[in-house]
Structure formats: structure tokens, C-alpha cells
Design goal:
2 domains, 7 helices, 2 strands
Amino acid sequence: MSKKREKINTIKNEIVSKHPGGRPPTYDNELHPLLVKALVSKNFTNAKIIEEMAISEKTFYTWKNEHSEFSQGIIDGKKELLGQVERSLYHKAIGCKRKSKKIFQFQGEPVIVPYVEVVDPDIQAIKYILNNRDPENWSEKQNLELAGKDGQLPVFRVEFVEPNKYKKDE
């Protein structure tokens, strides 16, 4: 189980132990913001957060509107998630090394062999970062300028014709 999942379960267990049974959930200004931040940072949707927290949709939005620390937990969770995605994009763009394991079978027994996997830089990630971070030098936009004689604006002639004038005979 991941550390984040363990943290979520610990917070949930604390909340449940404080408020057992079928009564409406009581807001805890220390635990609920931590829980919602952890869930948002794992990319849970509002519906999944509501399900995970075992609250109603109405309760979720009431807490979001009435408790600033709860809505701040949502904001902080989104920032954390965005940071994770940005780091992933960065590592994909520059390439990286990561520890991995391969499982082989030797004389009927599984053997786990650790190794370092080299991930090559990804050209699409590089282009994306350069296009967004330094658009003056790396933008793929092309500017097209129209010019007539001697740099003057071009003159266009628009002619209106009657619709039936060019109609084919059937």
C-alpha cells in the first residue's frame, strides 16, 4: 500500500472512530481538510471524494462553501497534483534513470533482479515545454503577412453574381 493511501486510511479511521454510527457527519476542521487534500492530490473526482469520505454531495458542497480550510485543502491538493504532473513531464522531457526489477525463473524458482532502467528523453515532451516556456524562440505558430505592391495592403475585388447566372441546364 502506498504511503499516501496509508495516510488517507489513517485519517478516515480517525474520523470514523470519533463519529460512529448513522448520524450525520460532523465536520472536523483538522482531519477533513487533510483528507480532502490527500484525495484531490491523487486525482480523485468530486464524486469519488464524496464516496471515499462517505458523505453526501450536499454535505461536500456545504463544507466547501462554509469552511475555508476545507476549500483550501482542495486548492492545495490540486496544486500538489499539478506539481506531480509537471515533474513527470520534466522527467519525460530530459530523460531519467529509475530503479526497476525483473523477475526471472531459475531452476523452477522465481529470481528478482534489480536494475536501473534508462528512460530516453521524449521529443513531444521537449517540444511541449519549449513551446510553452519560450514561445518567442520555439513557437510553432507561423505569422503570415499579406502585402501588395510596394508593401501596401493588397486590394481585393469582390464581385457579386446572380445565383442563377451560372446554373447548369438540366
